[in-house]
Structure formats: structure tokens, C-alpha cells
Amino acid sequence: MERGVVIGLLGLGTVGSGVVQIVKNHQQELQHKVGCQVSVGKILVRDKSKHRDLDIDEDQLTVEVEDVVHNPDIDVVIEVMGGVNQAREYIIQALQNKKHVVTANKDLMALYGAELLSVAAENGCDLFYEASVAGGIPVLRGMAEGLASDRITQMMGIVNGTTNYILTKMEQDGRDYEDVLREAQELGFAESDPTADVEGLDAARKIAILANLGFSMNVELEDVLVRGITTITTEDMEYCKQLGYSLKLIGLASRTEGRVELTVQPMLLPHSHPLASVQDEYNAVYVYGEAVGETMFYGPGAGSLPTATAVVSDLVTVVKNLRLGVNGQMTARPLYDKQLKTDKEVESKYFMRLQVRDETGTFDTLTALFAKEDVSFERLLQWPLENEKEPMAEVVLITHETNRAVYEKIYRELENMDVVLNVKSSYRVEGGQA
Amino acid sequence: MERGVVIGLLGLGTVGSGVVQIVKNHQQELQHKVGCQVSVGKILVRDKSKHRDLDIDEDQLTVEVEDVVHNPDIDVVIEVMGGVNQAREYIIQALQNKKHVVTANKDLMALYGAELLSVAAENGCDLFYEASVAGGIPVLRGMAEGLASDRITQMMGIVNGTTNYILTKMEQDGRDYEDVLREAQELGFAESDPTADVEGLDAARKIAILANLGFSMNVELEDVLVRGITTITTEDMEYCKQLGYSLKLIGLASRTEGRVELTVQPMLLPHSHPLASVQDEYNAVYVYGEAVGETMFYGPGAGSLPTATAVVSDLVTVVKNLRLGVNGQMTARPLYDKQLKTDKEVESKYFMRLQVRDETGTFDTLTALFAKEDVSFERLLQWPLENEKEPMAEVVLITHETNRAVYEKIYRELENMDVVLNVKSSYRVEGGQA
């Protein structure tokens, strides 16, 4: 270990550059923490001639992956190239060459996390991935170690900065979705193709990773029921606000008696809920443990240096393990088999907004439908709407707790009811009463 | 390790009982995490005959400390007895007998942390103390490991649940300090002698522990400038609220170019600040790192099971280290010498409320005093007060950034000014503009 630890990078984009900067600028602290020098060796890039504003020698750059994953001088490989298939292949090669791996790749970990962790264990290597969820927030470590002795029953995360930025602006300024999305794209908070963010897919990957770790279980990405934010209107936002709720895109993983639910969808949270005040592009993960109760981890979900902080913190753990000779020894295999909740087991409250014919008996017909299914109301408001053709009214309601199967039955019946002109919107309500 | 790991407890009060419960109820998860059985051996108590609602054998209880700290069957000693001198002595004995130690004792760690960590290192033992700050929130671990690669420049904590409960109720319900304190005492949120909490001493201990860890420096409890909440009035609360701020008891540790400031005092935080929405008895620690930016750790600051969760999570780390044979090897000694900021180096904004004679020139006299010291205003409001004897006005102001030396000079001059009848209150303002 006298020569110190040498890391190789796969990729030198936003996060990779941040890693190079931190390793250089915080060298003194790093050495103090791990007791030896940590330096950057070879870096895999696509184009060696591209100008980079970093203090690296040209001969550190390579276009051959072998120079990193087969390089005997390299102890730890940091994968920050993104993508799935190639990254997976390179990481497996690195592990098979007994290199420890740190990755920031959420797509990869959501799809192949179990496989890669098992390859790491077989090869006596560490594989850490803190940066794959909620960027700079040390939430995986917080759960795996800080709450090690607890039994986690629920995780709720604002784990996508783009959508939280959009919803925050919609809520604060009363602007509509398209308008804020355009602004977010101009400011660089949203991609030119925002699909993965606004449709909830990105958040789904993170919730799958969180669930695997927090519930000690192998869930798949397809187990996550996903719904995005593209149909949220300014009216929805305004009603939620008036009722004392914030509408947020929430990734939720909950466990009851060994059976789990995984979903990403817009949810109403009361203003008093810790997640409700998470603004703009910030991320936060709310964790409920049987013993500890409510905890929350808050911070930047993306960005070069924040994400690189998480990567280098994983690196610190790897280097400590290296010095102690204990890498790859404590990877815990899943304790539980995957068991998903059925729709009947998924309990929650719902917010619904409807437009109905404003005529005698409408209200009764509506409430009778809910009563038939044994669903009662926490809030129920109706008022007339301006309309030239026929008298119309708007109804906004929040149900008491019911299960998804029953709610969806009611929803379908409402859509087919003669007195109901339009079911405008419907969202889950979590986190208690406003 | 076949026989598993046996822990001994010093104390069986609120936290100790929680530890016994968690070790029993979460045994399956614990075994899965550490790969061996973890059981409770001897427990030091004051009175063996006291009735306890716990599943323990009577012969586990002892009144002799030797049965725990000299017991060859015990691997890890958990100190949850509280107090300073005796706890210190017992922990040193345990460490000298090569027992690893987990403590929840903030008083002890604030006063003798450096000494105890050094005894632990000499004896090749682990000494962990996550539960000593912010109960169930894994903030020490989050900083030491999750932000391991970063350079922390500021920590701000709501680290005392009693005072946060009192201030929350004062803010929400417009009730006065004495009234809420009485209620908090009835509900068990405040001690019958609340001095350590309401005068900020408890928070000072925690901020000293946080600073030692976060800044890698040995600070002393007496380096913390402390001011409590006992003089906060409902008027102060109301003005702060109207100006867009929350008044919170904040423990602050900040570092600029190697020089640190440590203080506990009521501070105004803009409503948008993550700490401003921490309500009731909850705790939160806001950490600013050069690379990661803003992060926050939120959760329960006290309570039997939350605090015990932190203790048992430390225990999990000790047991993992035991199995790997790496205890006591990575205790980092302080990297930096202590250098405290002078009053001239402590920069911040201030809120002030004054009662003045309502006569021509008063306003000018006041503003001239601030101008002379080069301090400008972010907000400045004046309005007449009902008063029979002479015309009076109230002035509320928020300064722009200045240093503590200058501000205190102004404060003293104001107190001696003829036009100033009363300096009603004065608080620091942190966390940006409302």
C-alpha cells in the first residue's frame, strides 16, 4: 500500500470530472481518512483530443477499456460512463480482474444490481453505488448502516430533481406544466427529451434500488407501478394547496408483513410532512423504521460535485477496506423472497376531481356509489361551474383509506356514470391528514 | 465467533431498555447483517429488585460494574447510564479490558471525547457514539462516511427537542414561553428542571461533538458561545413570522480558512430554509460541504427506541469489525489544530427590536449610528406605540452582514442612547434572505 491506491475511471463527463477534482482538491483530507495517497490513473474516454478543463496528463486518457479494467496498476474502477449494456460488461470485467468498483449508474443498478453484487461477492470485491440514488445524499449508507438495527417499513422519496423543480414552480407561481418544463429545459434542469424524468421512469429506477437495499429483497424495475406528472394541471395544484397539501412526485416502497408495494406517482402530502417542503431540484428520502420512526435525508440529487462526493465517499470505504484487507466480505445477500402486495392489499386515501351534471340527485348518486363500496370521505366539496350548455358542477373529494382494487372499481364506474361528465384527476394521498 | 457476540450494558433506563428490545425483536435481521448471534449478557443496574417490563433473566442483572467491564464473556460494553465521572471511569476500564464500547452519552463525549477516543485507539478498541447527537438520526455516520471525501464548512443543528417543541408551539399558537414550557413539562417533553435544555447547554454539547468530528479538530465545550431561549417573547415570534422567518434555537459550527466559530443561540431562519420547517420535538442537522453543498439529516432526537436504534447500529459496526478483525484501526486523530474565530471574524446579519422616543430626529440618530459603523439595513420598520407618558415608537430592523465586534459595539451604544428607551431583543439571522 506504500504506493497508495490508484483509481481508474470509465468516463470523464460531469460526474467523472467532479471525481478528478475532489480527489485532487481534497487530497490532504483523503490521505488523513484512509492513511495513504489516492491518485487517478487511466481514464477511459471516447475522444482523447476533446478539450477538458482539468489537471490531467494526456497520457492518462485512453480509448481502450482494457487499459482500465485489465490494468495491474489500478486498484479501484469508478464507472461514471452511464448507459447499461457496455457499463455492465466493463464492470463485470473489472470485478473478474479483482478490481473493486464504485458506480453512479442508476439504470444499471436498477436492472442488474443483484447480478453485479453477486459477481462482486464471488470475486471478493467491493461494489458500491451510493451515487446512484439521490446524488450527494448519503441515503444508502444511512439505511444500510445508520439504521442497520432497525426494520424499515416505508421509504418515500423525492428522487427526481427535474420533476420536483417543475412541480415546485407550478405550485409557487400557478404556471402550467408545459410552460415550466420549457423553462426547466432552458435552465438545464430538464433534458431536451424529458421522458425518463417526467414519466417517472428515472424515479422508478431509484425506488427499485432503495427497496432492494432497505427491504433486503430482490425487486425488479417492472415491479414498480409508474405514473408521471405530465397530466397535472394548475387547477389540481391549486385545489391541493387550498386543502393543505402539496402535490409531489413520490417514489414509494412500503412493506407490511413481508409483502411490498412499489410505485412512483404524483401524491398529495400534507404541508406538515417533511417531504412537502422539499423545493426546486432538491431530493429527499423519507425513511420510516419500526424502531427509529420518521427520518429524512435531504440534499442535492444531481450535479457534478455533489454526485462525485458520493462516489469518492464510496471510494474512501473501498480504500479503508483495502488497507484492512476486508473487501467484499460483508456483502449481504437478500434476506427475504420477493412478495408483492396485491391491489387489495395496497391501502391509501385518494384525491379526486370530477365534473358532474348539476341536477337534483347527482350528489346522492355519487355518494351512494362510494357508500356501496364502503368508502367514506375525509373531504367532499361541490360548487357550480360556469357552463352555457347545461348546469354543471365540480366535485373535489378526499376519501378515507381504501384499497386500490376497490378504488379502481369506483373509478371505472364513475367514468361510465351518466351524471359524471368527466373525471378530471385522481391522485393518492399519503402522509396523514392536512 | 461461533458463540456469537455478547454485549454488556451499563444502565437499563429508557435507552438501555430500547437496546434490549431491539436486540431481541430484530435478532433475525441482526444475524443476517453481522453473520452471528448477538445476545445480551450482564446488565449493570442500581436496584436489581425494581420491576422491569423486559424479557431478561434476573441473574443477568448485577450491581457490580466488574461483572460487566471485567467479564471475559462480554465483547462489547454499551454505556447508557448517563452522567459523567462514573461513566468515564467505567468506559476507560472497559477499554483497558479490550472491550469495545458504544455510548449514547453526550455530556461525556462533549467533555472527554478526545481522551476516550485516544484510550480506545491505544487499546485497539472501537468507541462509537452515534446516539450522543440527535438520537436516532445517523448524522455522525453520514458526515464521517457519507461525506468522507468532502470538506465540511458549516453545520447548523436543531439538536434539542425540548426547545424546538417550545418554540414551535410559541410560533404556531402565539402562546408565551412560560405557558408552553409548563405544557411541555406536563407532556414529558421538558424536564422538571429544564435549565440544561432551555439555556442551550445540551445543544452546546452536541455542537461540540459535531464540530470535533466534522472539522477534525479538538474543540472544548467552553469554546461554544451559548445563549438560551428563556427571554424570547411572543412579540419576537410574531415579528419574525411576519418578516418571513422562523426563530429557532440553532447550534452552529462554521469554518472559514481553518478558523472556526461555535455557538448555540436563537436565530432567525427564512421559511424556505430546510431547518425552518423542522417542527415540534424533531431534530435535524444541516451540513454544508464544499463539494456536496446543502444536505440535511432529519429525525427523532430522543426517545427510547430511536436512540437505541443508533446504539445498536453502532453495535452492528463493532460486530462487523470483530468478525473482520479490524476493530480500533481506523480511528482518525484530529487533522487540524483548533483555531477559534475572533469576534471580528464572525460575520452575520442581525434582527433587532427597540423602543424609542417618538420625536423628530430619532430615526436619523439611529441610522447615523449604524452608518458610522458601516452597517446597512436589509429591513427597517418603525411605527408608533400606544403610551400615555410620552410618545413612543417601536423599531424593528434586520441588518446586512456585519461582524460580531461591530454589532456588539452598536448594541452597547444603543443601550446608552438617550432616544432609545429599551433594546427589547436581538438575534442573529442565518440562512439567507426571507
Automatic annotation (TrEMBL), chains A, B:
Keywords: Amino-acid biosynthesis, Metal-binding, Methionine biosynthesis, NAD, NADP, Oxidoreductase, Sodium, Threonine biosynthesis
Annotated InterPro entries: ACT-like_dom_sf, ACT_dom, Asp/hSer_DH_NAD-bd, HDH, HDH_cat, HDH_CS, NAD(P)-bd_dom_sf
An example Gene Ontology biological process: methionine biosynthetic process
Molecular function terms, GO-annotated: homoserine dehydrogenase activity; metal ion binding; NADP binding
This protein's pathway: Amino-acid biosynthesis; L-methionine biosynthesis via de novo pathway; L-homoserine from L-aspartate: step 3/3; Amino-acid biosynthesis; L-threonine biosynthesis; L-threonine from L-aspartate: step 3/5
Keyword NADP attached: yes
PROSITE patterns: ACT, HOMOSER_DHGENASE
Active-site residues, as the UniProt record annotates them: 206
Cofactor: a metal cation
Annotated positions binding NADPH: 106
Gene3D superfamilies referenced in this protein's UniProt entry, alphabetically: 3.30.70.260, Dihydrodipicolinate Reductase, domain 2 (3.30.360.10), NAD(P)-binding Rossmann-like Domain (3.40.50.720)
Reaction equation(s) it catalyzes: L-homoserine + NADP(+) = L-aspartate 4-semialdehyde + NADPH + H(+)
Pfam families assigned to the protein according to its UniProt record, in alphabetical order: Homoserine_dh, NAD_binding_3
EC number: 1.1.1.3
Residue ranges occupied by any ACT domain in the UniProt entry: 351-428
Binding site residues for NADP(+): 10-17
Residues bound to L-homoserine: 191
NCBIfam families in the record: PRK06349.1
Family: Belongs to the homoserine dehydrogenase family.
Name the record gives this protein: Homoserine dehydrogenase
Species: Alteribacillus persepolensis
